[in-house]
Write a structure and sequence with these properties.
Layout: E1 8-12, E2 18-23, E3 28-32, E4 36-39, E5 43-49, H1 58-71, E6 77-83, E7 89-94, E8 99-105, E9 112-115, E10 120-124, E11 128-133, H2 137-142, E12 148-153, E13 157-163, E14 166-171, E15 176-180, E16 184-188, E17 192-197, H3 201-206, E18 212-217, E19 220-225, H4 229-238, H5 242-256
Antiparallel strand pairs: 1-2, 2-7, 3-6, 3-10, 4-7, 5-6, 8-13, 9-12, 9-16, 10-13, 11-12, 14-19, 15-18, 16-19, 17-18
Length: 259
């Protein structure tokens, strides 16, 4: 028997996807603040201080949970959507940019998944969203995504989002794969993750692939994205004339300020 709520879902779209979650009465789904697309009558929502899994007890526990989320660059708050109506109700969450939504059942992955810090979209209530410290310090300084990655723990469904095309690779024991650090989306708990130098100065500075790769070693599964958002943003900015970049960035700032 699962501890997390047993939700049903359907993913719509191709490159700009959204996931529709179907909730039975009193079932809930947790999500990052601002990810909701639409919801039916009977669905209520509540902003929670912490990871909203229900596992943090008392104010101190919630404070620690929120602090961990802040370290990953996420909001201090999450939102819980609950079906308070009669019969099944639906709530949908949209991807923040072009790419794919990845459904993962944590009960089939040993109860834990390590993911890129901005990839979490939503999950069944009961799934805990925390941080995972990489064992080697070099991973933190040179890993591209930072020393801290998110960990999803529990036995329910969770949904990640990543850019471009998503590839799922099953690594056998001892099998290794080198991945651009920004392209690594997620890995199961038994996969070893480390950072590897490209090998020589000429390749590092003129090869265009960066100074370091993420090296993952099996056994276990890894998910890889073909278009990390920072790569897309860099390409867009590089095509904008210098005198227009300030205008674009200023317009974005005005929008964030509500002007």
């Amino acid at each position: 028997m699962r501890n997390a709520h047993e939700i049903d879902y359907y993913i719509y779209g191709d490159d700009m996807q959204f996931v529709e979650i179907e909730l039975d009465p009193q079932e809930s789904v947790i999500a990052e603040a601002g990810g909701m697309l639409m919801m039916e009558d009977g669905i209520t929502f509540e902003t929670i201080f912490g990871d909203a899994s229900g596992q943090s007890k008392g104010f101190l526990g919630k404070l620690v949970s929120s602090g961990k989320r802040l370290l990953t660059g996420e909001s201090l708050f999450m939102t819980v959507f609950t079906n308070q109506g009669i019969g099944k109700k639906k709530v949908s969450f949209s991807a923040p940019y072009t790419g794919k939504i990845i459904p993962v059942d944590l009960s089939e992955l040993g109860g834990k998944l390590i993911a890129q810090k901005d990839s979490f979209l939503c999950a069944a209530k009961g799934v805990s969203v925390g941080i995972d410290f990489q064992r080697k310090l070099g991973t933190g300084f040179f890993g591209g995504e930072g020393f801290i990655m998110q960990k999803l723990e529990g036995d329910g469904l969770a949904f990640l989002h990543a850019g471009g095309t998503i590839v799922e690779r099953e690594l056998s024991p001892g099998e290794s794969l080198r991945i651009d650090t920004g392209c690594l989306v997620a890995l199961t708990k038994d996969v070893n993750y480390d950072i590897e130098y490209v090998g020589n100065v000429k390749s590092a500075f003129f090869g265009g692939e960066g100074l370091f790769f993420a090296k993952v070693s099996g056994p276990g599964k890894v998910w890889v994205q073909s278009l990390p958002f920072n790569r897309l943003a860099d390409r867009i900015i590089s095509r904008v004339p210098a005198r227009e970049q300030g205008s674009i960035l200023g317009s974005i700032g005005n929008m964030l300020d509500g002007e």
